[in-house]
Amino acid sequence: MNCVIKNARIVLRDEIIQGSVRVVDGIINSVDQGPCNTTGAIDLEGDYLLPGFVELHTDNLEQEIEPRPGVFWPDPLASALAHDATMVSAGITTVLDAVSLGEYHDGPKRMQILDMSLGALRKARSTGILKADHKLHLRCEYSDPKVMDVFMPHIDDDVLMLVSLMDHTPGQRQFTDTDKYRQYYKKGWSDEEFAEISQRMIATQANCAVDQRAHIIALCHGRNIPLASHDDTTADHIRQAVTEQIAISEFPTTLAAASLAREAGIHIVMGGPNVVRGGSHSGNVSALDLAEAGLLDILSSDYVPGSLVSGAFIMHRKLDMPLSEAIAKISVNPANAIGLNDRGQIRPGLRGDMVRVREIESLPAVLQTWAVGTAKNVEIPAKSAA
Predict the structure, then answer these.
(1) Which InterPro entries match (predicted)?
(2) Domain identity same for 168 and 269
(3) pTM given for the model
(4) What is the C-alpha to C-alpha distance for residues 36 and 52, in angstroms, rounded to an integer?
């Protein structure tokens, strides 16, 4: 809970300084420029010291629980602990574990993953051995007629920090072109099978989506739970989000949607893998293009935890974006977007969540992570010993 870190390039909100940080009882006590002579201080040897990363949407827990299609790891707690270790090793000190609510053609598998995920997280929290601060992000497929039955038992969970609204029906949002839906899910459907499945899903969506979306929104507003609109594609999607007082546009798929979200003051979230790969894996708008246009507030690691730090440094280098601004997109910006105002910056009075990063052949490598002032991974050798 107490530590002093010296000889670091400290990335603050608006500048980078060479200096030291003191943490007392898990809270940053002071940030000082210049040399530090404190006995026992941790010498970063000129490496970067960044604020701990805040992740709003990661699918990593589901990947640990189902490492191969249809293959479930026998002990969900082991999956949760492996997921936690992955988060910390990627510099993520606050993580919203994204869990999907909605089945469709996945049959009972989605419900099985949901139950295993939430059960494992509760058990892991009760042990007190989690290294990162785990919160919950419920991804609600509001066009699924069963979604309210699944959602209601979790609406008052004290770690629920975000609810996103999704509609993956063929013909909706990023799947306006139904061929994109077929290509994305790679189910091997025949033309007849796909036509039958699409018609059934479209009919179901028409019967329940509007009412269920409104119900979820009302429940969240009544509890001050932030909401995100997923895969905004058109101006109408953003106008709807504005009317519904939704604060976050998660993975907008077009420049037009992102531009209108900016005008409306809605936080824009894009995927780190999109930045690292130089484009969307599903053919949507490039996150780098949005960042260059000033239309990207928050990076999410989505399906690759290490893409947060890599994506931030890529934006810094490729777009000539100040490093402080790039790092804000993986720290203070996501924290503030969901009301976690006690973290996200290296500043006196905030949580002592910090990450040591060293550039190795232009690769930003996470070497150490501290959460509330406590080291969460092993010490590393000094540069001279490497």
Answers:
(1) Amidohydro_3 (IPR013108), Metal-dep_hydrolase_composite (IPR011059), Metal_Hydrolase (IPR032466), Metallo-dep_Hydrolase (IPR051781), PhnM (IPR012696)
(2) yes
(3) 0.92
(4) 22
